[in-house]
Amino acid sequence: MRSLSLVSLLITLAVAVGDVAAATADSAPVAFILQDVLGPEIEKIFLFFICVSMFCCGLIIMTTHTRLTWAMARDRRLPGHQLFSRVPKATGGPTGATILVAVVTAAPLVLVGSNTQALTDIFTAATLLPAAAYAGTVLLYARVVRRIKHEPGYFHLGRWERPVVAGAFIWLAYEFIVLL
Q1: Alpha carbon distance 83, 105 (integer Å)
Q2: What is the pLDDT along the chain (180 residues), one digit of tens a residue?
Q3: Contact criterion met (CB below 8 Å) for 109 and 122
Q4: SS3 helix, strand, coil % of the chain, rounded to 5?
Q5: Count of C-beta atoms within a 10 Å radius of residue 164
Q6: Among 119, 110, 111, 122, which residue's Cα sits nearest to residue 27?
Q7: CA 72 to chain centre
Q8: How many CA atoms lie within 13 A of 106 on its CB side?
Q9: What are the DSSP calls for 105-159, one per residue?
């Protein structure tokens, strides 16, 4: 779905661009096209909604990674699980996992903060974060799979465990090749 939205946006921008040379030379070509087509007032409204959408996407990614980190720590599948699995009554949420994810998420921003290509780098980092989280999950599972005791009544892949893990690694390799 995300890819379809991106393709739709790119097609719309390609059709809407009036002066290709001016849009290419501008430091913010999307804003340039919006201003050229819709005018400065509507452009500001659109850019406001784009900023809110980007913030919401970042918040959703951070919340998802916090939940994944906390769940893996709760199940003792993560180094430092004692710290990251705690849920203090004062906060009502997994504070350790939240701080870890916030620091890991903010690191790319700090690293590219003085770079003139920062926006491109941030978009690249944001694209890689879900893939990196999935890679971490698969790697940690592959590391501890032999120590997991399978109890009756709980889901287990059985003889499909190795093919599923191998498929996950193949998918990750493909995903990182495409993204990088």
Answers
A1: 18
A2: 555 676 787 888 888 888 888 888 888 888 888 888 888 898 889 889 888 988 888 888 889 889 989 988 888 878 888 999 999 999 888 999 999 999 987 887 777 767 767 767 676 667 777 788 888 888 888 887 777 777 787 777 888 988 999 999 999 998 888 877
A3: yes
A4: 75, 0, 25
A5: 12
A6: 119
A7: 18
A8: 6
A9: HHHHHHHTTT-TTHHHHHHHHHHHHHHHHHHHHHHHHHHHGGGPPPPTTS---GG
Distance CA 158, CA 150 (A): 9
| Residue 2 identity (one-letter amino acid) | R
Six token digits for residue 176: 């990182």
All residues at 6 or more sequence positions from 98 whose CB lies less than 8 Å from its CB, including other chains: 66
User: Which pair of tokens denotes residue 57?
Assistant: 């996407």
CB atoms within 10 A of CB 102: 13
Residue type, 77: R
Give the closest residue to 129 by CA, choosing from 105, 107, 98, 103. Answer: 105
